[in-house]
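User: What would this chain look like folded?
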Amino acid sequence: MREKWIDRAKGIAMLLVIIGHVSGDLEGVWDFKFVYGIHLVMFFLLSGYTLKKKEITRRFINQRFDRLMVPYFYTCAAIILTDVFNSYYLNRDGSIETITGILGRDLLRSFFASGSYKTFGTINLGTRIGAIWFLPAIFFATLIFQLLLKYIADDGYLGMISGLIAFTGYLLARFIWLPFSLLAGMMACFFLWIGYEIKRKKILDRIRWYHYIAAQIVLFLGAFNDYCNVAFVTADISDIFISILVGLSGCLMVYLISKSGFDMWGG
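Assistant: Here's the prediction, encoded as structure tokens.
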């Protein structure tokens, strides 16, 4: 049976993503930076929560590739065509030098799939691929986690290795950005594990009212002290311990709202 609160939680997370992207225009009015510690954490937790163990077959990989990477490449192609069109027809510059420069730049940013970084080694593109970085990141995150499920049976080792992979992605991002947002996918792997364990151990069924009170306090203090920030887009995090706790507290509040709203309307 489909758990309908999940759709409501995804909707709330999407609204938080939108708020995060437009919050720059509200600077000085209200600080919405705290949403960066919640929205994508929620998405990756839900991905782990709904994830089912699969055999790593060619068919499985092809299905995931068609679902996530094919739309990514189509979008990149649309971006390239749009940039060439704008240069040729709007800017009236169709020179070979300009067009090849556009193609080179767009192919590189499509290859690295960075939603934030613009400099890769000695190359400064001056632009990034944008929000679609999420598609290759979740593709690699789910693929890595499925591989872990296949080869690691012990729950403790599964969590430890997931955390180690996430920490490795975090560390590497301080020095280099690997293609197709792989580092973001590595960091997300740990949150997939948390979501997977929440479902497997039925943790949500054991939550009581005082857990929500504690989560609200942790979220408020974390946001007030700038610890509510888990930036998958750059594989960065304010504090590898506190920020995860704050982000999970925010997700618990999203769960409360989505579950209460669902019950309120009698679904």
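Residues 66-131 form one domain. If you want, I can go into more detail on any region.
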